[in-house]
Design brief:
By secondary structure, the protein is an all-alpha fold. The protein contains 3 helices and no strands.
């Protein structure tokens, strides 16, 4: 057992029917960093697959480019908001 004082979050059980969940929960900073990095990395992979030298039709490469940009924007949004 730790010697830290109990807070409201740890003192109440999650099965308490009178306690409502927080209105706007926030993730911890490491969770946000890992999530944003994973999204941006996936987006960069998509952009790499969309390069002109890669195999596939122009439509497939264009779709991968749009998906890649979408993941990068989602990663930036995850880091900021």
């Amino acid at each position: 057992m730790s010697n830290l004082p109990a807070t409201n979050e740890t003192a109440t059980s999650p099965s308490d029917p009178n306690q409502s969940p927080p209105k706007n929960p926030k993730d911890c900073l490491p969770c946000r960093i890992v999530g944003a990095t994973a999204l941006v990395g996936t987006g960069l992979y998509g952009l790499g697959a969309a390069r002109p030298g890669k195999p596939g039709s122009p439509l497939e490469r264009r779709i991968m480019g749009v998906v890649g940009v979408g993941f990068i924007l989602a990663g930036i949004g995850r880091a900021i908001f």
